[in-house]
Design goal:
elongated, UvrC, 4 domains, 18 strands, alpha+beta, five-stranded mixed sheet, about 45% helix, Nucleotidyltransferase, domain 5, seven-stranded mixed sheet
């Protein structure tokens, strides 16, 4: 299928998109937002617009009009859905199905009745009822209704209930009451005041004001516990936990936050610091911009925040009232309230802002590395230099691993990485020569001694870092070998233990635990896995050769050419064993055939005589 053409700048932006949930915004050549969409995987979703011709004419027209794109990363797909809904209402892009035609979207209504009902509808009737929404996703509306029904057993019947009818006993209990899905207001099992309290709590949920509801449920639970009404307290506790789980699903849209500005900072201690600005309108993010600063005189986060606030005010025309920040900025702004949240919705929205600041840095690095691959290598090596306490960049790294099975055919492998990548032409195998039995420590010492004695004698370059596969024991053997060769201090050496990926340094009994997501650790793991793979392959081949030729090697009178002829013809030692005398004779002649046949059938020779003392190591 043909692909849509896009500018080089747009192609670059798409190529470095993260594979995370988020909302993307398409702009036309005039800088107007023309489409807003959500994605579980931003990279895959945005790319899908450009890699084929679409069946829909409207979609093809949209793609042709796209001149630029921006995005906001969020923690979950549900957050992306909520944010998309709010931003569509704010920007009203022409290619979106706008919410101004509310008939096609569901609402949740609290009816204006003596005992109100709560249900989902697509029609709005001006009868004094309260409508919440609209919801772009029917599943979200149903999830809210399910929460309400689990918390509060409100009536669902459509009949008209009047105070007079309740007083006269006109109504009868229905099935919902008996299965505990209704509290029975029609027969007076709950009075109007208690029922209205339930309705007020429901309205809190629909407005998104969960904090007040949680406080109310917590107090009610404590009061019931003090009164020793433990079963009722348990019921309230279950309601409390339901609301908590519901609150945890979304952090992007919150009716409790309102209009507020958010500044998140990503500072990993380097020269580059990224400050993300988000503006929330009616509880939803409607604008997100990330600024990049380079420290020149060890500026603090507080100082950088003040610079960012001034720049946003100047360039974007922001008017501050309430500002959420990670710490108090180094600026005096009368009339502005600064909030440094510790928990709750405001803390969560600050985390989203910080995540976007960090993502901006990742995108910038990806963009730079695509244009200049050497930058990624230098950055990786600088990270490894810091993590492994090196005095120079580890452009040349070697890793060693031992392989043996119960002491048989002991071998070792050496793999070489240059600039963080495998250099397979430099890989080497070693057959252990001086060590008897399964002694990994002595084997490691022998291999390092042989390897670096040869490199020194031949005047070849030495690595900046040696990695040995193993813990303190293997590392001590490596250090001992370097000491004896006078290379201690010339080459850095570390050990990596398999179980918890600990990094051991010489003379340090406490291992280093590198961040599991660290690029440094991934390189060392790659080294270790390559050394293990390379060593196991060589060990397997050597063991196989040993098992294959040992039986033929031990037959007196059978030389190398005869062995090769047999294995070439019969393909395996098993078939040589099973071959009869005539088959063997057709390949190597009757004289040698008799020797081979009798060696594999020691109960008698070809003429029926007994042969003794034939030593076969099969």
């Amino acid at each position: 299928m043909p692909k849509h053409r896009k500018s080089h700048e747009l192609e670059e932006k798409i190529s470095i998109l993260p594979s995370t949930p988020g909302v993307y915004m398409y702009y036309d050549a005039e800088g107007t937002v023309i489409y807003i969409g959500k994605a579980k995987n931003l990279k895959r979703r945005v790319s899908s617009y450009f890699n084929r011709t679409h069946d829909s004419l409207r979609t093809n027209l949209l793609v042709r009009a796209i001149a630029d794109m921006k995005y906001i990363v969020v923690p979950t797909e549900q957050d992306a859905l909520n944010l998309e809904n709010s931003m569509i209402k704010e920007y009203k892009p022409r290619y979106n199905v706008l919410l101004k035609d509310d008939k096609s979207y569901p609402w949740i209504v609290v009816t204006n009745e003596f005992f109100p009902r709560v249900f989902m509808t697509r029609q709005r009737i001006r009868d004094g009822s309260k409508y919440y929404g609209p919801y772009t996703d029917t599943g979200s509306a149903r999830a809210v209704l399910d929460l309400i029904r689990e918390l509060y057993p409100l009536r669902s019947c459509r009949g008209v209930i009047t105070p007079e009818g309740v007083a006269s006993g006109k109504y009868r209990l229905c099935l919902d009451y008996h299965i505990k899905r209704c509290c029975g207001p029609c027969t007076g099992h709950v009075d109007e005041v208690a029922y209205r309290r339930h309705i007020e709590r429901v309205k809190d949920i629909l407005r998104g004001d969960m904090s007040e509801l949680l406080d109310h449920l917590r107090k009610e639970m404590e009061e019931l516990s003090l009164q020793l009404r433990f079963e009722e307290a348990q019921t309230v506790k279950e309601r409390y936990q339901l609301v908590e789980r519901y609150c945890a699903k979304s952090v992007i849209v919150s009716q409790t936050i309102g209009d507020v500005d958010v500044f998140g900072v990503w500072d990993d201690g380097g020269d580059e610091v990224f400050v993300n600005y988000m503006h929330m309108h009616r509880g939803a993010v409607v604008r997100s911009v990330t600024l990049q600063y380079r420290r020149s005189m060890d500026e603090t986060v507080a100082q950088l925040l003040s610079y960012a606030m001034a720049e946003v005010e100047r360039e974007l025309g922001a008017v501050y009232d309430e500002v959420i920040v990670p710490e108090m900025p180094d600026v005096d702004m009368p009339g502005v309230t600064f909030i440094v949240p510790q928990r709750g919705d405001k803390s969560k929205i600050l985390e989203v802002s910080e995540r976007n600041a960090r993502q901006h840095k990742i995108d910038m690095l990806k963009h730079m590395e695509r244009n200049d691959p050497e930058q990624r290598t230098d950055r990786l090596l600088e990270r490894m230099k810091a993590d492994f306490r090196l005095s120079e960049l580890p452009r040349h790294i070697e890793c060693f691993d031992n392989s043996n099975i119960q002491g048989t055919n002991p071998v070792a492998s050496c793999v070489v990485f240059r600039d963080g990548k495998p250099s397979k032409k430099d890989y080497r195998h070693f057959n252990i020569k001086t060590v008897e039995g399964p002694d990994d420590f002595a084997s490691m010492k022998e291999v390092l001694t042989r390897r670096y004695t040869r490199l020194v004698n031949e005047g070849q370059g030495l690595p900046q870092l040696i990695v040995v596969d193993g813990g303190k024991g293997q590392l001590s053997s490596a250090v001992e070998a370097l000491d004896e060769m006078g290379l201690r201090g010339t080459i850095a050496v570390v050990g990596i233990a398999k179980r918890l990926e600990e990094i051991y340094f010489p003379g340090d009994s406490v291992p280093l635990y590198i961040d599991k997501n660290s690029e440094s650790l991934r390189v060392v793991q790659h080294l270790r896995d390559e050394a293990h793979r390379f060593g196991i392959t060589h060990h397997r081949n050597r063991r196989s050769r040993s098992q294959t030729v040992s039986a033929l090697d031990s037959i007196k009178g059978i030389g190398e050419k005869t062995r090769q002829a047999l294995l070439t013809h019969f393909k395996s030692l098993k078939r040589v064993r099973e071959a009869d005398l005539d088959d063997l004779a057709s390949v190597i002649g009757p004289s040698k055939a008799s020797i081979v046949y009798n060696a594999f059938h020691p109960e008698g020779d070809a003429d029926g005589e007994n042969y003794e003392n034939v030593n076969i190591n099969s």
